[in-house]
Amino acid sequence: MPQTQVQDVVIRFSGDSGDGMQLTGTLFSDTAALLGNGISTFPDYPAEIRAPHDTVAGVSGFQVHFGADRMLNPGDFCDVLVAMNPAALKANRKWLKPSATVILDGDSISEDTLHKAGFATLDPIAELNLQDYNVVTPKITQMTQSALADTGLDNKAIVKCKNMFALGICFYLFHYPEDHAKQYLDSKFAKKNPAIATANKLAIDAGYNYAANTHQFANTYAIPQPTHVEHGTYRSINGNTAAAWGLCAVSEKSGLPLFCGSYPITPATVILEELAKRKDLGVKTMQAEDEIAGICTAIGAAFAGNFAVTSTSGPGLSLKSEALGLAVMTELPLVVVDVQRGGPSTGLPTKTEQSDLMEALYGRNGESPVAIVAASSPSDCFHYAFEAGRIALEHMTPVILLSDGFIANGSEPWKIPSMQDYPAIKPPIIDTCTEDAFMPYKRNDKMARSWAFPGKEGLEHRIGGLEKDALKGSISNDPANHQLMVDARAAKIGRIADFIPVQEVYGDPSGDLLVVGWGGTRGHLQTAVDALRDEKKSVSLCHFNYINPLPHGVEEIFGRFKKIVVCELNQGQFTAYLRSKLPQFDYLTYNKCEGLPFTVAQLTDQFNSLLK
Amino acid sequence: MSELKYTAADFKSDQEVKWCPGCGDYAVLNAVQKALPEVAEASGAERSSFTVVSGIGCSSRFPYYVSTYGFHGIHGRANAVATGLKVANPELNVIVTTGDGDSLAIGGNHFIHSVRRNIDLTVILFNNEIYGLTKGQYSPTSKLGKVTKTSPYGTVEHPFNPGELVIAAKGTFFARSIDVEVLTTKECITAAAQHDGMAVTEILQNCVIFNDKTHAPFAADAATRKANTIMLRHGEKMTFGTDNEKGIVFEDMRLKVVTIGEDGYTLDSVLTHDAHTPDTILHSMLAAMKYPEYPVAVGVIRDVEGQVVYDQAVEAQIAEVQSTAKIHNVDELLRSGETWTL
Lengths: 612, 342
Hints:
The structure holds two protein chains of two kinds. In chain A, about 35% of the residues lie in helices and about 20% in strands. By secondary structure, chain A is α/β, with parallel strands linked by helices. In chain A, strand 18 (about 510-520), helix 18 (about 520-535) and strand 19 (about 540-545) form a beta-alpha-beta unit. Chain B is an alpha/beta fold. Chain B folds into two domains: about 10-230 and about 280-310, Thiamin diphosphate (ThDP)-binding fold, Pyr/PP domains (Rossmann fold), CATH 3.40.50; about 235-270, no CATH class. Chain B is about 30% helix and about 20% strand. Chain B has eleven helices and twelve strands. In chain B, the strands form two sheets. Chain B has an eight-stranded mixed beta sheet with strand order 2-1-3-4-6-5-11-7, sandwiched between helices. In chain B, strands 8-9-10 form a three-stranded antiparallel beta sheet. In chain B, helix 1 crosses helix 6, helix 3 (about 100-105) crosses helix 4 and helix 5 (about 160-170) runs antiparallel to helix 9. The radius of gyration of chain B is 22 Å and the shape is globular. The relative contact order of chain B is 0.12. At the A-B interface, helix 1, strand 9, helix 10, helix 12 and helix 13 of A face strand 1, strand 2, helix 2, helix 4 and helix 10 of B.
């Protein structure tokens, strides 16, 4: 059988939302990562837990982009599509590369399933114009049933293993070992239900052997060894876990206990779940009665002297607005993690978007500035969660950390950092009163006020949502004091720019086109810029992780390019922000609101047309 | 009585108290400032361990007037803020001052869930059956038909009885007092502060400007209160009246007011108050007693110990997990699970 050397491959697992596609994809991508391949993953699933069987609406997908080197994005189009039913084939037809391999469970093709998937004829291959593709329709269900006939499991349990049969086929196609997946199945099921572990492992073997014995697959693939290896210890990580762990790192480096008050909301819930596991590190989590209680318990914990956090998504951020203003007024440190999804309202809970930026910047009553940091890949959620916590604690301010559904659920290999390399965080905590009377709103060089925890003798003070006297913190209705405090709160946020890295540009420092992005689009933007730079085109990337305040150096970078195009997954919110902050530049825009990441193809087309 | 470490004066702040002249809140502040030295003495607590948290409303100005740590939050969220504060530092003695609008309308959700969790807070619920700070709109405790600025033809909604709400949510402590009864208020708050778990004390408070005399039919003066309210104390007979001649009996599945020595009722027929029973039925009935059919119950109606206390359980769970934990720091966390080396 011919073996093709490929630099990188995109494979998409798809099926009913109960078919176990997320697990199948994760086992495949983890195997690739363990072999030292680069991976980038993209889970794409419906909002319903179990949408109607065999319908396009119920299709759940998991895309893995893997190859020799670091993968910056999960890929636009797939080389291999695994479809467990006709609906999955139909839903993903548009994501096939020309001449892609399609593995469709032959047993799933019936009049009934074709009808439910909305096919007009009984020939899905012809109807979708797939005659020139390498379509294979192995009888996955039947072969799983025969392979597992002796396991003693009932038919329902046996059929559930068909995803592992498909995984076995894919392992064969890429010459991947089965060990990792089998170890995982053992660790997950061996104690509770060893028969299930055995059956799933048998299904992997059966799929692998079937693929090896049949001549249906035109090709197998070999991924070369990585060209340059950065030595170190690696793990696979998704954005939500990385964010949760980054917050734990803040707690360790500040010496303050971590408190997280949150309410479950897609796609942010994993942050609360991960932190709830961390009682070993002393983390206190509260699943609050609602989003408002989530942030309010966090504010109470911040007053008490904890590193306080609340995690949410767009609708929850809306509910937290008033309390966020309270944190601005009381000048308490607080991190609000907003994992953005499609909006407005309930919107697209499981789909990605960057449309909460304006809400994060301005969505509160009064002059109410907060610091904003945005993560740009699954693994750097750790770093930017750390940064959000550092800024909150050292500058005594709420900080919104913007993530999104794409990087929160996506995963990639991560070279594990050492906590030695992270700085100590030093909040302006005061333990004893050195003056005649404690002045809770007296500011330091960062303009941060002093933080005195209840329980400390001699520092008793009262704070709240009413305007504060500029020193004592007592209630003040004085007009001049209000102006002073409005100015001070804004200046405090502005001052943060002196304590974050200067803005960088990727590529040449000047040129024809500067691509500007922020947050979770980094991987796609950089891949597109790389592609054009390989063609010797004059394109660079200026990608933002610090949103408010903007870092120093932005004006200088912008001034060195002929054209600037701001790309974001909204209708131009960052562009509007840049126009208000740096109105001297002309900004072109490239926006998308489809609930999906950019594709590299869309971006390169766009940039090429701007370069003409 | 021996000398206490603190006096009421130690809990008075330098802020000018700005409630309306004649407001019932003054008496409550007075009672709290008298109760705290005793609470501090009993628990060995320092003044700085007391933290007063409030929401929005007239009663929510309270923290500014108590000379310790204070947090004046936003409307309805006092219980949520206080919950975070207490969980973050269980050593603190957290007192919540809130009103019928703050905790039963906009903050109703936080209120019932704090009760359900049995978090160790001392909640003082000022019930004046009106919105005072916004100048006279009906509240969730306003009587049916109450005419206010937003109900010019009378309300068409039933009020909450805070005691029934607390007890239905399996609250472990509920007490009630009347603003002018400073000693009763002090007694209730002292017991509340020493209770292990969420302790709600409702104060029937007069808003002299927007809802004057709303509690007057049973609370106008000492004689009226003696005739029409009943002070409940654990282990004592449920008697009341001008000459203590009346009592509460349980008959035909309901409470009944009887005159001792009439119709065959003796002191023995009268119920003895058991505030400590976990059973909620009788406590709920006592809390629900409404004038004029019944006397209004004051004092500690329910005080049940030995239930799971949220903030303590959180600490215990962490200690238990840590005693056998494999992960002790972030470096170990990052290297837990599957890793590989290149």
